[in-house]
Amino acid sequence: MSNKRKIIDAVYQAFTYLASFVSILALGLIFMFVLNKGFGLLKWDLVVSDYHAKYYNGGMPEVLEFSETERPESFINEVYYSEKWGLALIDGKDKENNIIVEVYFIAEDSPLKEIIDKNENDYENFGLDVGDLVTIIKFNDGMTSAVSSWGAQNMITQLDSVNEFREIVFSTEGGGIRGSIITTLYLIGLTLVFALPIGIFTAIYLNEFAKKNKITNILRSMIELLTGVPSIVFGLMGLAVFVPLTVKYTSATSGNILSGSLTLAVILLPVIIRSTEESLKVVPDGLRSASLALGANHTQTTFKVVLPGALPGIITGTLLAVGRIIGESAALIFAIGTAVKDDISIFGKSTSLAVHIWSLMSDEPANIELASTIALIILIIVLALNITVKLVTSRFMKSYN
Question: What are phi and psi of 210, to 5 degrees?
Fold first, then answer.
């Protein structure tokens, strides 16, 4: 080999290694940024709790019997405890990094476990509980209050000096993403219900039944063209077509999960059609010929022999489709809306995990920490889907062979 050839090969290899290094470095930096910003908020409570906090107003007349529970020895120094009220508070930050005062412990004999509900709701055993956030305590002189921004120690100190108070405002923490997770699951299920049958049967027709002519070539070209259309264009279509359609024939009043699913189904059709068609092409023609030679007709051969052989590729295409559903945001902003909801209905507005990230980043200031945590959860879901599909495909291939 000549020196010139060696130099050219070395340059090609250098560019190859450099491009690979840059790609790995970029992906690694993105992952490390998301992990660094979001890991601190990654807790189970975030997944199962509501986004909107529920606020309560209580009152306490003069107390005659106070708590007799002493401060537990296991409490750390940062926990402030009132033996008089049997209440332990601790300073902290919520999921959006705002200062909070949280109920760390409440004794069984605490008078705060049963207080007067000033909103007159029909609650049983209305009172403070562990995990509640105390916002403000207003005392009877009308001038003195203890607010969360002054800290847990100040609140405990003022409580110890009184036998009653006029009002206490407390709430659940909120900031959770339970509603967005449920919405994402709804979108995945409904979108696949709409898109998979149409996409798979279209691919079967194009690959197994349709004649090769100008019409089918144009159809394939249009399908490939749709894969390059920006998703926001599909979002406008969803807003113009599917939102009015669902409003007319369902109880929906605006963008909703159903209209979002229909929009995503249109987005995914080209992906499903192309992946299914490529999976059908890799099935050996010998299997088709053997089936026909044994007396099966074309339709029986297609659905009994060819389709099962292409199933691993179809499952892979479905995985790609699910990943697209989870990560889609631009189209859903128009087709479903950006309102973060806790009570989820397929005919109501809500946000997927990706749109929830967009909503958090569009606030002033942007909540980078919570957005990064949701991004981590999306990565975990996609990883779990990859592992699941590989296991299912592996088992299917073993049983098929």
Answer: -70, 140
Could you read off the pLDDT of 103-132 as tens digits, one per residue? 999 999 998 888 888 887 767 678 888 889
Per-residue pLDDT reduced to its tens digit, 358-386: 888 887 777 888 888 999 888 888 888 77
Assess contact for 372 and 37: CB atoms under 8 A: yes
Q: What share of the chain is helix, strand, coil (3-state, %, to 5)?
A: 60, 10, 30
Closest CA to 165 of 144, 135, 193, 192: 144
* 12-16 contact pairs (CB < 8 A, 24+): none
Query: Contacts from 365-369 at CB under 8 Å and sequence distance 24+?
Result: 367/96, 367/97, 368/37, 369/37, 369/38, 369/40, 369/41, 369/96, 369/97
Please give the model's pTM, rounded to 2 decimal places. Answer: 0.81
Residue 111 DSSP one-character state: G
CB-based contact 354:264 (threshold 8 Å): no
Q: CB neighbours of 304 closer than 8 A, spacing ≥ 6?
A: 291, 296
SS3 291: helix
